[in-house]
Amino acid sequence: MGLVTAIVLIVLMTVFLMSTHTPGRYQPAAPPDTNQVSPYLTHYLAPSFYNNIQLDEPFELVVEQKGLNEIIADGSLLDCQWPVDLNGVTFQAPAVALLPETIMLMGTVNFADLPIVMTIVLKPKIDEAGRLYLNFQGVKAGVLDITFPAKIIAKKVFAAQVQATDDQDNDWLKNLAAAVLDNKPFDPVFLAYKKEIRLTKAKIENSKVILIFTPE
User: Fold this and answer.
1) 42: which of 3, 76, 182, 203 is 20 to 30 A away, CA to CA?
2) What is the pLDDT of residues 152-161, one digit of tens each?
3) Directed axis angle between helix 147-164 and helix 171-181, to 10°?
4) Run of H or E including 64
5) What percent of the chain lies above the pLDDT cut of 70?
């Protein structure tokens, strides 16, 4: 074996190992039983959210990482069932890791029967004008940084999704695409239980996020 060939093989092996590495923080919740909705959503999060909104006063909502991952694994809140197939690429076992000022969105992508854990890193913040920045930091396949090609693919996916939805329903999708791809801020005002509320503060800590909402 020549020196050049050996170097190429070493590089390829290194890339393979880096891309197939599973991050230690990747701990997806077990899929629930069929038709079972997350107890964390039905018994804590939804009632707490609803009761506080009725008071028409600013309120605090603490979301735990473990409970959030149970909700994500359930899929009903996102109106989907895992795994999800996108043009032959399967996405499954999504999970969130919460660190100080950081959100890590993770999931397993199966491409050509090769499972790779993808990680999207965000450092959200709310500016003085009350606008929310997602502060997209990058994308990794295992520990390999693939931010540049991932953004190209994401632009095509967002464009296809916008085309596939009605003009009246895709404003949020356009805002999300701009927030992720171009780091553009957006007004964090949401309609919940027929009332508009604004996210005025978000403090991300280890394994939890503390959200402050104010009625509009």
Assistant:
1) 203
2) 877 777 777 6
3) 170
4) strand 59-64
5) 81
Which residues are CB-neighbours of 9 under 8 A, at least 6 positions away? 1
Residue with tokens 């050049």, as numbered in its chain: 4
The mean pLDDT of 153-176, rounded to a whole number, is 70
DSSP codes joined into one string, 125-159 = EE-TTS-EE--EEEEEETTEE-HHHHHHHHHHHHH
Tens digits of per-residue pLDDT, 33-54?
766 778 898 899 999 999 999 9
Q: Report d(CA 137, CA 194) in Å as an integer.
A: 34
As a whole number of angstroms, the distance between CA 41 and CA 18 comes to 36
Distance, in Å, from the CA atom of 103 to the CA atom of 201, rounded to the nearest integer, reads 15
How many folded domains does the chain comprise? 1
From residue 117, give the alpha-carbon distance in Å to each of 83, 86, 109, 151, 216: 14, 16, 6, 17, 39
Task: Print the domain residue range for 36.
Answer: 3-215
- The one-character DSSP state at 167 is G
Torsion of CA 216, 44, 33, 111, to 10 degrees: 50
